Amino acid sequence: MTENDERQLEQTRVDFVITQIDDQIDEANAAVNTAHDETRAVEKNYSANASVNLYEVDDAMDTNVQIQQQRQLVSRTVENETILKNQLTTLQELQESPYFGRINIKDAGDDEEALYIGVASLMNTAKTDFLVYDWRAPIAGIYYNGSLGDVEYPTPNGTQTTELTKKRQFTIAHGQITNMFDTNDTVGDEMLQAALGSQNDQLMQNIVATIQKEQNDIIRDTTSDLLLVQGAAGSGKTSAILQRIAYLLYHSRASLNADQIVLFSPNRLFSHYISEVLPSLGERNMRQVTFAEFLTRRFEGLNVETIFEQFESQHGLPKPVQKFLASADVMTAVENYTQSLSAETIEFIDIDFEGQAFFTASHIRQLFAGTPDKMSLTDKTLAIKNALIKELKGHIKTAANSDWIQDELEGLPTAKLRELYGEHSADDFESEDEQLTYLGKRLATNRLRVVYNAIYNNHFIDHYFQYQDFLNSLHLKNIDFSNTITDYNQAIEFHQMPLEHSAPALYLRDLITGSGQNRQLEYVFIDEMQDYSVAALIYLKHIFPKAKFTILGDSEQALYSDIEAPEVLLQRLSESLSAKKTNLISLNRSYRSTTEITNFAKAMLPDGDKIIPFSRHGSLPKVIECNDKTQFKDALVNEVRTLADQFETIAILTKTKAQANEAYRILRQLKNSKLLSANDRVLPSGILIMPIYLAKGLEFDAVVAYDASATNYPNQHSAGILYTIASRAMHQLSLISLGETSPLVTHNQSLITDK
Ligand SMILES: Nc1ncnc2c1ncn2[C@@H]1O[C@H](COP(=O)(O)OP(=O)(O)OP(=O)(O)O)[C@@H](O)[C@H]1O
Q: Closest ligand 1 atom to the C-alpha of 587?
C-alpha cells in the first residue's frame, strides 16, 4: 500500500471516530441539561430547608443532621453535573484531535491488533470497543517505552509480553491528519520539533503526545516513596510531574483526589503558568502553594522572610551558622533538645482574658509537672490542654449565672439574643431560670472563646522564646551563635521570622505540641529543590508523614547559593530524607531552547557538558556591549523593540529587583511593557520585566539578559543566575552589558555573536 493510501485509510478512520464523537456529544449535552435541572431543584429545596441559623456558637456540639444530608445531596448533584460537563469537554477536545498515536501489537497465536492512543479513552457508541485508549492505560506505556519487537506491559494479572509490530504518530488538527509517520523507536523527534518550534502561548501545554522515555519513567513510577528528579534547565521536569499527577489521579480514581496532592511551587506566576495542564487532561488541579505562603500560614501573625527578600537583602548570617541551620544536624539537635525538656525548662506563659491572666503560667507548669513521667512530651502537652479545657468548661458553667454575664445578657440587642438562642426559642424552656442559664452559658462560651482558642492553639507556651533557648543550648565547635541570637530576638520583636530559622523553629514547636502534622496528604511535589534547605525538606517530611515525595530541581540553577554538582545535592537529600524506596532519575536532554542557546548556557557551568541540547536551530545568542549609560539605554530599547516585532513574549530578566525597576524606567515607553512583582499572579504576554527569581520555571519566546556585565556577573559564583536567565529563552537570547561583558559570556566566542 502506498503512503497515500495508508493516509487515506487513517483519515477514513478519523472521520468515523469523529461521527461517533458527534453522537456522544449530543447525548452528553442532553445529560448535562437534565443534571442541571436536577441540581437547580435540589438547591431550591435546600435553601428552603436551610433557613435555620447556621452560625452556631457551639458548632462542635450541635450538628444538624438534616442540613448535613441536604448539603450532601446538593454537593452530589453538583458533582454529578460537573462530571458530565467534564465528559462533554473531553469529547469536544477529542472531536478536534481524537488521538496522536497508534500501536500494533500481536499476542502469540492471535491476530495483529491496532490500538489508538489519545488524551482520553473513547468507546464506540455501542460500548463494545475502545476506539481510543487513554495515554495512561497500562498498554499505552508501550507507545512511550517500547521499540519494535517483544515488549512488556503491566496488567492486573502481572506482566504480559506481546510483540510490538508498528508504532505510528499523528498530528490531527480540526479532524484532519496533518502529519503522520511510522517510527520504530520511542516517540520521534519530528513531532517534538513541531511541538517545540512554535511560539510560547503564556501557559504551559500538556506533552502527552510526545512524552520521552525518561519522562515516562517519572510519570509511571507508582512505587517510590521518594522520587528525586535532577534535570537540566528545560529538560521537562515540570512537564513530567504534571503528567505524573494526571497519571496518579487516573490510576487511583477511587482513593485519591486532587486535594490530597500538593505542589510547592517557586512563585505565584509559576502557579498560573502551569494551571491549564491538568484541566487539559480532564483532571482537577492539585493544591499549590509557595514555601513562603506555607510558612506564613504556619507562623500566624509573623512576617516570614521570603527567599526573595533574603536574596535582595544581601546580609546573611555568618556562613557556618547558615550552614548549620540549613542542615539535617539542626533538626537532630532540635529532637535532642526536646528530649531534655521538663516542666522547669518549658517556657510557659499566662493565658490572658481581657488583660488579666486567666490561667497563669505557674498553674500550667504545675499541671505539666503532674503528668506521669513515662508520658511522651507531646502526650503531656495534650494532657494539659485537656485539663485546661475541662477547667474552662467549669468556669463557663459558673460564669453562666454570674452577675457580669447576666448583666451583659440584659443589655444585649434582640438580634444578638436571637443568635444566642440558636435553634431554640423562648418557648422551649420550662422556667425563666432555665432559659437564663442556657443563654448565660451560651454567652459565656462565646465570650471565653478566646481562651479556648489560646489553649487549642498552644498559646500557653512562648515558642519563640523556647527556640531562642534552644539556640542558647547549642555548643558547637567553631560556631558562635551570640550575634545570631541577638538578631533573631530583634527580628521577633518586629514580628519578623528570618527564613533560616523557620524550619527548625516550626519543628521545635510541633515536637513539643504534637500538632502540625497532616496525614491526609498522599503526594507532595517540590519543584526547584535546590532552593530548599535540607532542614526545610526534613520538616516537610515530618508534617506530611503519610505522603510520597517527588522532589525535583536542578542543582545548577542555583540563584541563592553556589552551584553544586548534581550528585552532591542528591546524595545530601537521599541521606537526610531516609526513605524506604528511593528512585533517582536524571534528565539531561534540554528541550526548551534552541541548540545555540543551550550550548551557550551550558558552557557557563562546570558540569555543563552533560547537558544535551535538542536539535532545533536558531541564531546564536547576541551580545551587545555598551560603553556608557546612554548607549546602553538606546541599545536596550532598540533590541527589545526589534524582538517585540518578531515575538509575542519577551522577558527582560535582571539579577535584582532594583535592576528590574531600572530596566522598567528605560522600557516603559514601549507599548505592552510590564514590570512584574512577587505579588503578581497572572502572566501576561508582551514585554515583561522582572528579576530572575520570579521567572523560575517559566519560559519566554525571547529573553534579554539585563546588564550582563563583568560587574554584575563577575565569576563562577554568579553562574547559576546567568545560566537560569539564559535558559528561560526558547528562540532568541540577547545579552546587553554596561561596560565590559561578563567573562561567563565571552569565554567562548564561537557560541555568541557580537553586535
Ligand atoms: N516530551 C516533551 N514534548 C514536548 N515538549 C516538551 C517535552 N518535554 C519538555 N517539553 C517542553 O520543554 C519546555 C521545558 O519543559 P519544563 O518547563 O517542564 O522543563 P523544566 O525541566 O521544568 O525546566 P526548568 O528547570 O528550566 O524550569 C516546555 O516548553 C515543555 O513543554
A: 21
